[in-house]
Amino acid sequence: MKITIALSILILASSSCRLLKSNVFQSCDQQLSDDLKKNWLRIKDYSYWNPDVSFERNDDFIERVKTKYKKCLLNKSKPEIESLFGKTLYVSKYEVGYDCVPPRSKNIKEKICLRFVFNDEGSLLEIISPECWTPID
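The chain above was modelled as a monomer; its predicted structure follows.
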C-alpha cells in the first residue's frame, strides 16, 4: 500500500513538472514573439543600409535575446531562427546573423551583429553580438 501511494505521488509530481515546463516554454515563446513585434524593427533608412536585411540597433532587446530568451531559443534550428527573426543574407552552416544599425547612422563602427551559432547537428548553441563579422574563435 505504501509503495502504491509513493508511486502515485511520484507519477503525479512528474506529470506536473512536465506540464509546468511546457507552460514555461510556451510563455517564453509568446514573450519573445511579443518582444520581436515591438523591438525587432527593420531599418527604414533606404539611402545607406539595406532595409531588406538590416534591423534597428536595440541593445536592450539584443541583451534580452542573449539572456532572458536564450533558454527557449537553445536547440532551435536555423529555419526556426529565421522564421522568428526574419530574412537575412548571412546564413552559413554554423551561423545565422543579422545586421543591427543605429537609425540615421552611416558609421559602420556603430553596427553590431546578432549572431546565432549552431552545432554540427544544426541546433542553436550560442547567441552572440560582436562587431559585425568578427571571426568566431
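The beta strands are 54-56, 90-91, 95-101, 112-118, 124-128.
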